[in-house]
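Problem 3 from the worked examples.
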Amino acid sequence: QVQLVESGGGLVQTGGSLRLSCLASGSIGRVNTMSWYRQPPGKQRELVASITSGGSTNYADSVKGRFTISRDNAKNTVALQMNSLEPEDTAVYYCNYRPTGFFGGLDSWGQGTQVTVSS
């Protein structure tokens, strides 16, 4: 079991920046993907960005060029730097851990952190 704790959400004006952090603890596999998802009010949860343990990244089209995902494998952390924020980025942001090694395993989710962008 992997536990995830997010931090860094808050209220920011359009065009501003926020940095989200996620600390993972527990039985962390060497081969995994960590991701940030978000769930806007009244909408489904969607993938924002992901990064593999090898450093490969993937971004939703809506955040490309504005958001950057990074990780520190030694510290078991993943971060999401969000720049040029827009009201459409308002959502609860969730950290996700997915083991992708030979034996696989279950996803783990953080409790979520609120990001609100005012116009």
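Problem 4, a separate protein:
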Amino acid sequence: QVQLVESGGGLVQPGGSLRLSCAASGSIFGINAMGWYRQAPGKQRELVAAITSGGRTNYADSVKGRFTISRDNAKNTVYLQMNSLKPEDTAVYYCNADLRTPYGNALDAWGQGTLVTVSS
């Protein structure tokens, strides 16, 4: 069994910063890509940022220059540093991991989501 546990969401004023963390645990042999998605009310879930095991990153155009994704492979943890937050960044943020179990299975795992609210 694999768990992704997110933390770091909350309420922040426009222009402020938050840092999200997501730790993967359980029956994990290796993790390929890790990423953050978000879903705002009435909208589809969208990719925010992703990072490969080698450190290659990919960002949504709407967050480029403001958000930074990073990971600690030794801790199976991914981070999302969010700066210059805007009200339109308000959403539930979900962690995702493309991983392999010790039994050779590929697994697309998701966290439970953490709410980020940007409002004055």
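Solution to problem 4. The chain has a mean pLDDT of 96. The two ends are 40 Å apart (CA to CA).
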